[in-house]
Write a structure and sequence with these properties.
By secondary structure, this protein is an alpha+beta fold. It is built from six helices and 19 strands. Helix 5 packs across helix 6.
């Protein structure tokens, strides 16, 4: 398939710069791929589309203060180091700007207590660096690091917790699993009281989030590997939900990728910790996911390809066109979409 088949026109003013308050006052577009119907609701209406026994799967990753600002030893030139994932110990995969001067051996200083040395370049244009410091790295990072926001958000965030889900707990992501940003704790409690199950997985969002598709034929695109973990408790909950004839609804594309990566067959899944580079696009047969809650994604992104695999490319693009007409808010701080079970 061609990359241009996943393009759409988006006025820049529809890219949400700030989050809605309260969180669940975002709008919610509800798609039925079988009936080809589109409804316009709010996220607080979500319970209308869930049933007792359904299971929501949420990604409990937490965004690191991954953006470090420093200077090159020798020249004093400013450098930004963006943490992507810990390889082991004090060695990390990063993005470095400006990258052309980040050669092996270059030392970058962030403070009197923290420096890093560039070790090598990666296949994806990143850099492997090793940190040296005095004290506890995580505490230093909390003091010096900044919570990164996507490049299309130009407003400064007043409260950094607004770029975390209310259920985040496993620190390790370079970006938030943004579909979950719409939930409040009160709404989650209400859903559980009506009999909706909550299962948690972890996928630490990495370089793939920031890497655009640069090939004309999407099958040639290579995803970056990301760490994920699913507990046996969550796997058992999923199997019990399936056995009862209820739905497993993934909150966000990261939850989808975790579930489909851990699946061993249709409806078959077990607790697992691994790395995934799964790339889901039209033609993919879903093994676990029966419904999706997601945001509105960038044109020509792997995320809109994934959603198209579930609901059909033409129907998804029709829904996006309708979202533009109805002035929905797009991307990380934007509105939400629920896609019902496939036929």
């Amino acid at each position: 398939m061609k990359l241009t088949e996943f393009d759409y026109d988006l006025p820049e003013e529809l890219i949400a710069q700030t989050p809605v308050e309260p969180r669940n006052f975002s709008r919610l577009m509800v798609l039925d791929p079988v009936e080809k119907s589109i409804e316009h609701k709010h996220f607080y209406d979500l319970k209308e589309f869930l049933e007792p026994g359904d299971t929501l799967i949420l990604n409990d990753t937490r965004v690191m203060p991954a953006r470090l600002l420093g200077w090159r030893e020798g020249t004093g030139g400013k450098v930004e180091v963006f943490l992507l994932r810990r390889i082991d110990g004090d060695t990390w995969e990063t993005l470095v700007k400006p990258g052309r001067k980040a050669r092996a051996g270059q030392v970058v200083r962030f403070s009197d207590e923290l420096v890093c040395t560039v070790q090598e370049s990666t296949d994806f244009g990143g850099r492997i660096v090793k940190f040296s410091y005095e004290g506890i790295f995580e505490e230093i990072l909390d003091r010096l690091g900044e919570t990164p926001l996507p490049p299309y958000i130009h407003e400064k965030l007043a409260d950094s917790e607004r770029y975390q889900t209310v259920y985040s707990r496993e620190k390790g992501s370079a970006a938030a699993p943004t579909a979950g940003l719409h939930f409040t704790k009160e709404q989650m409690n209400d859903l559980q009281e009506m009999g909706v199950n909550m299962g948690f997985v972890t996928l630490h969002v990495g370089l793939g989030t920031f890497r655009p598709v640069s090939v004309d034929t999407i099958e040639d695109h290579v995803m970056h590997k990301e760490y994920y973990s699913i507990s046996q408790e969550t796997a058992d909950l999923i199997k019990a939900t399936k056995a009862a004839g209820k739905r497993v609804i993934a909150v966000g594309t990261t939850s989808i990728r975790t579930l489909e990566s851990a699946a061993s067959g249709v409806g078959e899944i077990a607790g697992k910790t691994d790395w995934t580079d799964i790339f889901i696009y039209p033609g993919y047969e879903f093994k676990i996911v029966d419904g999706i809650i997601t945001n509105f994604h960038l044109p020509k992104s792997t995320l809109i390809m994934l959603i198209s695999a579930f609901a059909g490319r033409e129907f998804v693009l029709e829904a996006y066109k309708k979202a533009v007409e109805e002035r929905y808010r797009f991307f990380s701080f934007g509105d939400a979409m629920m896609i019902k079970r496939k036929g």
